[in-house]
Amino acid sequence: MTTLTAPIRVSVPVSRRYLAVGSFILLGLIDLIMLGLSAHSGDAVFALSLPGASPHLPAIRVPGAVACYVLGAISIALGIARAVLEPPRWAKRTMIAVVLICFLLSLLAWADAGNSVGPVQVVDLLQGTLAASIPLVLGALSGCMCERSGVINIAIEGQFLFGAFTAAAVASVAGSVWLGLIGGSLAGGLLGAVLAAFAIAFLVDQIILGVVLNVLALGLTGYLYDRMMVPYASTFNAGNTFSTVKIPGLGNLPIIGPVFFDANVFLYITYVLVIVIQIGLFSTRWGLRVRAVGEHPVAADTVGIRVLWTRYRNVMLGGLAAGIGGAYLTVGSVGFFNKDISSGLGYIALAAMIFGRWTPLGSVAAALLFGFSTQLATELSILRVPVSSFILLMAPYVATIIAVAGLVGRVRPPAADGKPYLKA
Question: What is the DSSP letter of 251?
Fold first, then answer.
């Protein structure tokens, strides 16, 4: 007997639907009332080119209050449309993006309206966003590599710390930032190997194991910093960094040139890793086997896929990627290592992976959102908005909570994620 099962489309619960509608309208009302009515008289100026840049684009001037009113009206209209219509999934995500962009633009227009400090430097804002997103993207890619094969990686924070410490020390001792980059990546891969050994071979609870490894990394790097780097700073913490690399031709394009093609070498490495991992996971035989191991390891083992070896390999490769993210915090940014230099970035990268639904491109979009919230706080402090600096520093963490708790919606991790596999 053959049973034919027709696909059934599960409708979105009414409560979740009205929650989205209420969120859109609430953000629109904030744009209209809190920002529009309280905006100073005058124009908000958005500078599209850096001072002295060639070619130089003219700045955009808009009345601050009017901009808030228009953007708020757009958000409210989208909320009403969301309540009346039943748009497809891609349209829902587009609506969320538009409402968020309207809110952020309203915030910038409110902050710069009638401001004598200067215009909103759009290029600086975008450059800072990418710079803040690099370790988040690399950490999220590490999480994708691990969890697509069925191993939860909570230890991204620890891999950042080990990578940052090793990169600073190796670059200082060897006098080469490239050796520092390689050393930082290998340090992250070493911690990934420890994670793989305990999680896969000894069946340790992966959540607890990741937290323990983070605490170990925090304590060990802090101890070595006090014993090695503080008394012998010129030897082990000299402050070596990569210089900016400008791609000829592309680096001179307006707006996108200085943002995407006149940057640190870590940004170009991130481009390559995103493309390679996206294509590898979803367009190659290797990626199909990895996803099979993460979804149904028993079936994968039945057809001859080496489940345990696949998990070992992916966890260590993910550790190498996270180690590069850690190296960026020192040799790619400030040059120096300090205690707890990652400051929770590993956990935000984990949230970006979840927000991105365990896909490399989705994780990149989520990481850019968190990176933008970080740079936005810096930009608002430069514009001297009447908001406490402590509240501005909370912005990326608040964005993480809102994204994971509300915007991400219902997600499904790989079916075998976090479940140890015992070969029969």
Answer: G
CATH of domain 123-407: 1.10.3470.10
Res 277: pLDDT: 96
Q: What are phi and psi of 46, to 5 degrees?
A: -115, 110
Domain ranges of the chain: 14-118, 123-407
Q: Tokens standing for 21?
A: 């509608």
With contact defined as beta carbons under 8 Å apart, do 374 and 395 qualify?
yes
In the numeric block, which tokens belong to residue 39? 């905006």
Whole-angstrom Cα distance, residue 221 to residue 164? 9
User: Which residues are paired to 245 by β-bridges?
Assistant: 263
**Closest Cα to residue 44, out of 105, 125, 132, 87?**
105
Q: What is the DSSP string of 336-399?
A: ---TTTTTTHHHHHHHHHHHTTT-HHHHHHHHHHHHHHHHHHHHHHHTT-SS-HHHHHTHHHHH
Average pLDDT for 34-40: 87
Mean pLDDT (the chain, rounded) = 88
- Rounded to two decimals, the pTM is 0.89
